[in-house]
Amino acid sequence: MSAATRRTSGELEMMVMTERLPVVNEGSIEAPRKVRPPVEPSTLAHRDLRDGEWWQAVPAFAGVDAATFHDHRWQMKNTITKASDLLEKLSGLASEAFLADAAEGFRIAPMAVRVSPYLLSLVDWKNPYEDPIRRQFLPTASSRLPDHPKLTFDSLGEQSDAPVPGLTHRYPDKALFLALDTCPVYCRFCTRSYAVGPDQEMVEKVSLKASPKRWEEMFAYVASRPELEDIVISGGDAWNLRAAQIRELGDRLLSIDHVRRMRFASKGPAVLPQKLLTDDEWVEALVGVVDRGRALGKDVMLHTHFNHANEITEVTRRGLGRLFQAGVFVRNQTVLQRGVNDTEEAQTLLARRLAWINVHPYYVYQHDMVKGTEELRTTVATAERLEKWVRGAAAGFNTPTFVVDAPGGGGKRTVHSYEYYDHLTGISVYSAPSVKPGQLFLYFDPIDLLPEEGRARWAVEAEHGKMIDEALEVAREVMVS
What we know:
Mean pLDDT: 89
Low-confidence stretches: 1-10, 12-21, 197-205
Strand order of the largest sheet: 1-2-3-4-5-6-7-8-9
CATH superfamily of the largest domain: Aldolase class I
Distance between the termini: 71 Å
CATH class of the largest domain: Alpha Beta
Oligomer: single chain
Order of helices and strands: HHHHHHHEEHEHEHHHEHEHEHEEEEEHH
Largest sheet: 9 strands, mixed
Strand content: 5-15%
Shape: globular
Number of strands: 12
Structural class: alpha/beta
Helix content: 25-40%
């Protein structure tokens, strides 16, 4: 046998393999490719945005044409602010039993009623109890659970970190500027139910009106603190500020040299996106502040708040598209809620749909401990599971970070960064060394979702302090080990 015909078994195997490979260019060989199968149409559901005249299915809006329905002035004029008016509009659409349940739910709720026609029309009234939008805005007495015994009215301690009324200075370089105390709608789960909206039967609220005198004190404080580089303008909701107020806030804060970043916070795009299409003066005011900031080398953007993919329609895409074309960057902050978005499918669809309309998912918050909303809260373990699932389902910059805003003023902590988490008692312990060094902060899972042994301990008041002491002791041991 000649040398030319002698081959090792490895060489022969390589020859067989290369004969199967396509030749790309003379003298080059392409490696085998793994071809992904065609995607299932359901995986592209995030692109299917609700369109048409769907609101006409609600009898109260049956005769309203598109031009009228998508005018922000009509939406604001017809926004429902009384429970009796809302229930009257639902007559014949929802069952009498549901309406009676909702009427009692409104009576005992800590948050007043304010619902836009747009939002009301997005609810599936054939199945209102399970609908993710209804659950956020219309309480029912039958679903009400007792508040956790460790809940406080201002659970995040915003007032205790306020050097002047309405301005929270917790983080070294950031302040929260609560410009007003009204919103285009009132969310049941609002962490500022201590101030937002009018007084309720069970709640007398702190007043944070859009007062020039109060604003001057806040401007003066920001100007006096050279470490403040980042200002969040919230409330209430920046959507309810007039165009002149948007310009005033923007101009005054941008004129402070050390302020480098500003965020206008608003749920408006989720509940009244028509404003972006028909309120030209307001949009131009916001864009003007963004442009002025960019000219000064400062970053101004809009932070918004979608909780479920059903809140995003073709109207949303068009409205936010206008901001995108004008160079306004938009981020989203979601609140994790039981029965709303506490599944892998719901969180993934929301992240992808937000990305589709050029909104970047930023945070998913563990539901704050808010009065009257225990049935909407879920566990820290649920948030951990969801974050694992969502990460990798979209590009990294379109993947939200799951956080706990630590009760008592610890600020935002990544959900899995606890020092200790007792799944039995539902107590998680967080530290915040850059915010409040040496302190520990506790978050409590809802009792009804705990194992039986944990529920039994919480049923005995004498056990409450013991459970907390046990969790703190383990956390401290972990921190020094």
